Amino acid sequence: ATENGLLAPLPGKLSSTRVSLYADDAVIFANPDKEEVEALMKILKLFGEVTGLTINQEKSTVSAIRCTDLNLAEILQSFGGKQVGFPLTYLGLPITLG
């Protein structure tokens, strides 16, 4: 999606990993941009149509990392899950900003 211009590259030298998968959990890193979130949701919808797999919106969350002075409610309009802050728990481990 990045190579095709649907998603912008993530900032930073070590930011080439966009998706982390473990068992039935996934973490997707994206830029805080309304169009990018909409594109990501379309990609996930198409993935579901092709594979028959669906996203459980009740279990889906988004956590903004160092996103100050942004209207996250507007950016996340197309995201059906809930927004959670830090600290959070992922795979039983506490995740905090350091």
UniProtKB/TrEMBL annotation:
It comes from the Eukaryota. Residues 1-95 form the Reverse transcriptase domain. Pfam families: RVT_1. InterPro entries: DNA/RNA_pol_sf, RT_dom. This is Reverse transcriptase domain-containing protein. It comes from Aegilops tauschii subsp. strangulata (Goatgrass).
